[in-house]
Amino acid sequence: MPTIPDGPNLLDALEPAAILTDLAATIVYWNRAAESLYGWAREEAIGHPVFDVTPTMASRQQGEDSFEAVRLGRRWSGEYPVQREDSTTFLAHVTLPPVYDNQGLHVGVLGLSEDADEARARHGPLPDPDPEHRFHSEDLS
Question: For residue 123, what is the domain's CATH number?
Fold first, then answer.
């Protein structure tokens, strides 16, 4: 019988960028797809606040607000501008579920993100985010 990969190996198998943070928003895991999408090597990203790495200056507050909702135990999904290590920006479709340990304690947030335009090309239309979870292309600056 094949061995099922453990958490980190399983996250590396995901196609979307997977960024795991603790409840203080510090990056504790960064998968290969995150390296490819954002341009930061795993070693460069781990240990840094996620708000210093992925959101643009214009979307930082949106990122903090969505993280806070998940920190309080809710799941969040929507689109907002993010940036790569080289400062280029793109609109990302982001899903943020809470992460619980084996005892049921909320210990972190798993950020799953992909380029929204590329996701639409692969999967067709994405669910339309609520107006409060939507940014427009002019917000990318």
Answer: 3.30.450.20
